[in-house]
Amino acid sequence: MDFSLVKELREKTGVGLVKCKEALLEAKGDLEEAIVVLRKAGALSAAKRSDRITGEGYIGLAENESGLALVELNCETDFVAKTATFTEFANRLAQVTLEGRVSSVEELSQLSFPESSAISIEGERSSLVQKTGENIQIRRVLFFPKKAGHSYGVYPHLGNRAVGVVALLCSGQERLAKELAVHVVAFAPKFLSEKDVPQDILRQERDIGLCQAKEKPQAIAEKIAEGKVRDFLAQVCFLHQRSMSEPKLSVSEWIKREEKQTNASISVASFFCWRLLGE
């Protein structure tokens, strides 16, 4: 198959590459006939919807002993986003991502569900567009491998509009990891600790403090600037934030208390939060 023909058909119709290739194969390389094939399949009407805004959706989630997978599936309305057909499709996408350790939307789109191997996932997506009458797009995918000696916590929130994930460097701490994942969703930390914050950001916060205290004596202004930086770190750093479960303790202090109670060494290996339409 001449890829330039596939590309030309894609540019003319707006239909995905996989569907274009299938249409050209059926049309034996005839471009105009391939367009007719796409029209008969309803793919063109689906493509016409592809420029409509997708401001709703659902984050599909799948997990096993080797890893976890997330897939953000977008649609136009919350009505469709809450339907079983839509959420099940997102979770099936996540399961394929998990089993295949998929790393991109493009790779996922060319795969198939095990129960319908004759149809690509891109074809299934187009069918769902036809069924719902909405623009439906796979926005992003992630496969997150698990490591030995770690504990993992996953927390889906607000109908899977947000999913928090925490990995702890310590086995047998799934409960704590889950509680910390809830915290990540609620407080949205950007960094693990002070050492992870870029120096230019810290300097900027300090300069803001000095500017706000410019009428004060230098020694007092310096203390105000230091306080400004501490407050900033308490807002954006995971370990510096107040614990959601124990507000009197920072997350770091909370983890240390768990270490004493379990006689284990616990540290945060990684964390992240996916939010619908987020980065």
From TrEMBL:
Q: Where does it sit, as one GO cellular component term?
A: cytoplasm
> Where in this chain does the record put each Translation elongation factor EFTs/EF1B dimerisation domain?
69-273
- UniProt-listed SUPFAM superfamilies: Elongation factor Ts (EF-Ts), dimerisation domain, UBA-like
Q: Which UniProt keywords apply?
A: Cytoplasm, Elongation factor, Protein biosynthesis
- Which InterPro entries does the protein's record reference? EF-Ts_dimer_sf, Transl_elong_EFTs/EF1B, Transl_elong_EFTs/EF1B_dimer, Transl_elong_Ts_CS, UBA-like_sf
Mention one GO molecular function.
translation elongation factor activity
Protein's cellular compartments: Cytoplasm
Instruction: Provide the residue span(s) of the region labelled Involved in Mg(2+) ion dislocation from EF-Tu.
Output: 77-80
What Gene3D superfamilies does the database record attribute to this sequence? 1.10.286.20, DNA helicase RuvA subunit, C-terminal domain (1.10.8.10), Elongation factor Ts, dimerisation domain (3.30.479.20)
Q: Which domain of life is it from?
A: Bacteria
Q: Which family does it belong to?
A: Belongs to the EF-Ts family.
Name the HAMAP family for this protein: EF_Ts (MF_00050)
Q: What does this protein do?
A: Associates with the EF-Tu.GDP complex and induces the exchange of GDP to GTP. It remains bound to the aminoacyl-tRNA.EF-Tu.GTP complex up to the GTP hydrolysis stage on the ribosome.
User: Record's PANTHER family?
Assistant: ELONGATION FACTOR TS, ELONGATION FACTOR TS, MITOCHONDRIAL
Full protein name? Elongation factor Ts
The organism is: Candidatus Similichlamydia laticola
Gene this chain is encoded by: tsf
